[in-house]
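PROTEIN DATA CARD
Card holder: TonB family protein
Chain length: 286
Origin: Longimicrobium terrae
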Amino acid sequence: MKPRFTLLAAALAAGSLSACAVARGAPADNPRLAQLYEQDQADRTGTTVLGPEVDRRDAERRREARALLDSSRVRTAADHYHAAMVFQHGSDSTDFRLAHELAKRGEEMGNDRARWLAAASLDRWLLSTGQPQRYGTQYLEQGGRTYLQPIDSTAVTDEERRRAGVETLDGIRARLARVNGTAEGSLAPPPARAEADEGPRVELVGTVADLARQVRYPEAARAAGITGRVRVQLTVQPDGTVGEIFVVDGLGHGVDEEVLRVMRAARFTNLTGEPHEIRMVIPVAP
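Structure generated from the sequence above:
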């Protein structure tokens, strides 16, 4: 069964729908949201490796976009598209789901660019919750080649992909063949081969317990009696630093942000010679 999504009625409907009925005509695009969008895109121009500083700026942009959303200042189709892109570069499934809802609303209001973003944010949300993507917008690097992250190729048709501004699966295969310099395009990477007589290829420097001790337990979590585990997915770069990272299963109340802070400073040994995706679970308690 495909997951159903409901618009955030309190934030989206109040800010988007009612604004269309103002007597002076259609509202103007929010210039600050446009600036946040431009800053987001500038941070991703000319690089494929995003460091902690970009993560910090992303978090600041999300906080500001959230405030604009809560104060009913996300009104136009462009506003919804710009806000959706900011949340698309979030840190957890909640951000990605909000990005999808905002992009869908932008598409409904007539922003053509929001069609692709609605598909991409759905794919990213599904992957962040342990499900395969549907459209084929999310990629990974392995062995110096590019592949799709796990996909349910039957969930949508190629016609639906075209309508969303996404390539067909055959088109993706052909492009991957060109990019990877292979005769045939493969959507998925080859299965990993067991390496006999070798230790772990990617390993944390230190222990998970060391990381857990670095988590500063938030007062909001203490007041709410929150304990448990935070599951994160991250990319270990060839030099052992942490690249892209997001929360798969979190606890909220400021705990997830604190775990991300600690994990971004973690170091690994990476003998693969390439970016490597892993998942980790960090226990959190006062």
